[in-house]
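ARCHIVE CARD
Drawer: 12
Card no.: 0347
Subject: one protein chain, sequence and derived structure
Cross-reference: see card 0346
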Amino acid sequence: MTTTPTDDAASSSPGSPAPGTPDRTPDGTSAGAPATPQDTAAELADAMTRAIKRIRRRTSERLEPYGITPGQGRALRTLAHAPGCELPDRAMRLSDLADRLHIAPRSATTVVDALEEAGMVERTPDPADRRAVRIVLTDAGHAAVERIGQVRHEVALEYFGPVSPAEQDLLLRALRSAEAAYAAATPPRRTAPPGAAR
């Protein structure tokens, strides 16, 4: 008697899961099993990581013709949001900039060196402490900040455009809530050791 192939036999071909083996999603969970809070949180974190990478890459591509790197852009925006960023006696110190960017003082010095060479910032002695250096935005720096803001706005609209305003608002509120809870539960970072760039 001749037998004919069955669906079970076909499904056990190379690359297919063995009979009785549950399908798996990319994160390793069973496709048929209900998602647990841990599964959902992990998938959300993965989705956020992908989104951030895409947005950063596109933003970097858009800023490249202007000679602005992502690190320089973050530094300029941080300086621009500091109260009194145009005033030598109130502008941000180099050590404060490093702390805000979560980078080593030496790395902050490298970023500021490039921005100063491009004419976007100026170093000035701190009137209250001559050992310290404050970073003042120039007119070119302010123009660059405006350009960066426009590019970031365009990229964000392109990425989140397909998402409804209501869903965008829900996602934003959820992320703000998670960030507030995380910040409240996380010990503050240690300040730079004595002798670091100021």
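Annotation on reverse: Strands lie at 92-93, 121-126, 129-137. The CA atoms of residues 177 and 197 lie 34 Å apart.
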